[in-house]
Design goal:
about 500 residues, alpha/beta, Udp-n-acetylmuramoylalanyl-d-glutamate--2,6- Diaminopimelate Ligase, Chain: A, domain 1, Beta-Lactamase, Alpha-Beta Plaits, five-stranded mixed β-sheet, 17 helices
Length: about 500
């Protein structure tokens, strides 16, 4: 062992003649520090280790096929073990596995049959005794630092700065969307380090240069503690990081309590606003407390999922908070929300939370809120009929959901939009197609009497109807499409010559 070191390296072990260890792969990792030894025949022992161990195995957990051996080795390297020492009882090590060891600089050692595993363990333990005592002292100091959280003088920056010094890790506490959970401690790793967030895992994650520890409140992951090794610090290991997670979990609980308190207040406010007899004199000021400004344009959302349980409501709340979207939420039959959000936000919300969303048009007058609730609920009916989660916006291709707005000018505009391709026809062609629709609906979609009134053959009427379907992109066999066309035809008298000749 080199002078001044309190641990052995792989090179030290290979150099001891009485051990007769044979390096068969991964020579680039000879200087890896061996902080401890561990024996395991699991197929994936990595999650039970914290890094720096020499794994000693008979080889029962090593797959026999080359692809399996490569995957096994890559998993060990990912957990930053010092290396692996394998008994001669193990299956034959493939060329592919040894090539992977060289690529990863992950040492693979062969152990002669006559060398007991315990001898290796004693050697490493004796050499690492001082290191182990140092690590234990750091763990105790971490626990002492945790006590500062409830002291009068403790503050977030001072506590986490000290924990970084003791643990040897750069620390971050983030929400499941990668946002900093603690305003006073805003550091988060680079975006590339947060790719793993997409899977929402509740398992310990190993990332480049560190670990991610999930923080649970009840049975839900509400935050993650990220520990990234300092380039010039000696990390105290995964166990130290898990001690730090004890504190971070308390901060996650406090954050959930704050969110729940605001959630309750917001629900009470939204319930009052939805009352059609409510006084709205101070509503603007109360909405401003939640970041909502009606003059910017708000939407009412109606939300449902297949289970419609409380987890949906919490998931919605946390997603909106984590994305800094002002909102109020209220469970009233369905889950209702008042939000200031772009269309793209609503589509991401539906996809990532896994819900169906019906959204009203944007509005600026709070007196419109009860009517917009009906519009959102109507849109939700269309969303629920959809095969997949999604957001259905009243002002988009939702057909008759848009007609819930009784404003004459709005209906005129909708009529033009719905019949635009027919209005674009000229002269007799336009008149024939529009008149065909009028007569067709007058006769409740019956071809024979409609053809008789139009003085055309039934085949001619069917041909015109197919042209109308092609031009408008609507199917007359669909109740929704037919209903929308019927509403547009009924509103034809609202159009002027400018609309018919645009």
């Amino acid at each position: 062992m080199a002078s001044g070191r309190d641990f052995l390296t792989i090179a030290d072990l290979v150099a001891m003649p009485h051990l007769a260890l044979q390096l068969v792969g991964g020579a680039g990792g000879l200087e890896n520090a061996v902080l401890w030894t561990h024996t395991s025949e699991l197929v994936d022992p990595g999650p039970w280790l914290e890094g720096g161990e020499l794994l000693i195995v008979n080889g029962f957990g090593i797959p026999e096929d080359p692809a399996g051996q490569v995957s096994y080795l890559a998993s060990l390297a990912q957990h930053r073990l010092a290396g692996i020492a394998i008994s001669v009882r193990a299956p034959e090590l493939s060329t592919e596995m040894l090539d992977e060891a060289d690529r990863l600089s992950f040492p693979v050692l062969r152990i002669p049959r006559e060398i007991p595993f315990i001898e290796l363990s004693y050697l490493v333990a004796n050499a690492s005794d001082r290191s182990a005592r140092s690590r234990l002292a750091r763990h105790l100091q971490i626990f002492e630092t945790l006590q500062l959280r409830n002291s009068r003088d403790g503050d977030t920056v001072a506590i986490y700065s000290e924990l970084e010094r003791l643990s040897g890790y750069r620390l971050a506490v983030v929400s499941p969307t990668g946002r900093p959970l603690l305003p006073e401690w805003p550091w988060v790793p680079s975006a590339e380090s947060l790719d793993w967030l997409a899977n929402g895992s509740s398992e310990l994650q190993v990332i480049e240069g560190g670990f991610v520890v999930p923080l649970l409140v009840g049975d839900r992951v509400t935050a993650y503690l990220i520990g990234k090794e300092h380039p010039e610090a000696a990390p105290a290991g995964l166990a130290a990081l898990q001690h730090v997670a004890t504190l971070a979990a308390l901060d996650a609980i406090d954050d959930q309590r704050r969110r729940e308190a605001m959630h309750r207040k917001g629900g009470e406010l939204l319930a009052g606003l939805l009352d059609e007899n409510a006084a709205l004199s101070d509503a603007e000021d109360r909405l401003a407390d939640f970041g909502l400004v009606s003059t910017r344009g708000l939407r009412v959302l109606a939300v449902a999922d297949r289970t419609a349980d409380v987890a949906t409501e919490i998931g919605m709340r946390d997603w909106l908070v984590d994305h800094d979207l002002p909102h109020l939420l209220l469970k009233q039959g369905v889950l209702l929300a008042l939000v200031d959000a772009a269309e793209s936000d609503l589509r991401r919300l539906a996809a990532e939370v896994g819900v169906r969303v019906g959204a009203s048009s944007r509005f600026t007058e709070l007196s419109e809120l009860p009517r917009m609730r009906r519009q959102a609920t109507w849109s939700l009916g269309l969303a629920v009929d959809s095969a997949e989660s999604g957001a259905f916006l009243a002002e988009e291709e939702l057909g008759f959901a848009q007609w819930l707005n009784p404003d004459v000018e709005t209906i005129r505009q909708l009529t033009v939009r719905t019949l635009q391709t027919l209005l674009d026809r000229e002269g007799e062609d336009q008149a024939d197609l529009l008149n065909t629709l009028v007569v067709y609906f007058r006769h409740q979609g019956r071809v024979r009497p409609a053809a008789a009134e139009l003085f055309v053959h039934e085949h001619t009427l069917s041909y015109r109807l197919k042209r109308i379907e092609k031009l408008t992109g609507r199917d007359l066999r669909s109740y929704r499409d037919a209903f929308e066309l019927w509403l547009a035809v009924a509103a034809l008298p609202l159009l002027d010559e400018r609309d018919r000749n645009r």
